[in-house]
């Protein structure tokens, strides 16, 4: 039986593992796909807004060519951390159930060959993130194959009519990249402006595209229906029909809270923030901890910069529990 099983191999889960390893606490990280899998879904040419030092874990320096690293540099850094630390992690192990036992917990997984396995531990850390569960528009046609919730690159959409829904960083980055790759872009946002709350590095480009009419911008508008060759929206001026080939719905992501609920962890009714001690990150369920962005519920206010700092606090508390103090 392991002392700790960490569910989730993103940056925050790796931070927990690194902190446990430093204190010589037996642990295993279970990740349902690749390490830091969410970053694989980021735009190929993305440059992080966070500086490299704010992404460091495990006391291993992160050196990048510029202060703000690229997606490729970030992937390479976290691979390096896992390799150099010889971290105990199993990838492509999808956790399908966790149940409390007399001695701790039984974690059941399914691997890439659909084979089920079981792992036992005295304590559980949930660091499952939010990126696997996009928020939905909940409109007719959203299940069509032309509708996507992740954006990686714009080359494939050159010369095509692409609509982007959203107004935050991911949506604006997609709009700019699509335009630069030759797509005919429409941007639909329920807010009055996209100039507030985005990265300063995006502001000049998106303002230029909108104010010079290089893209079609529909503020204070919502999608009402998606069809094969067009999208219907409700705009300030009434219904609008937009000819369309592809839709990127980039309106945010939310955690899968079913695992927390099944373990009896209380969730705030409005924010879905789990009930946990902010000093130790132990939840109202004894020996169950949360780490990373999942601690922010549906608020999307916790990022890698903050979540990577949860690991040492969790590891220190577990060490004290093991020593009976």
From TrEMBL:
Assigned keywords, A-Z: Oxidoreductase
InterPro entries: Auxin_biosynth/cation_transpt, Bdr, FAD/NAD-bd_sf
A GO term for molecular function: flavin adenine dinucleotide binding
Oxidoreductase listed as a keyword: yes
UniProt superkingdom: Bacteria
Xref: Gene3D superfamilies: FAD/NAD(P)-binding domain
PANTHER family, A to Z: BACILLIREDOXIN REDUCTASE BDR, FLAVIN-BINDING MONOOXYGENASE-LIKE PROTEIN (AFU_ORTHOLOGUE AFUA_4G09220)
Record protein name field: YpdA family putative bacillithiol disulfide reductase
Naturally occurring in which organism (per UniProt): Paenibacillus contaminans
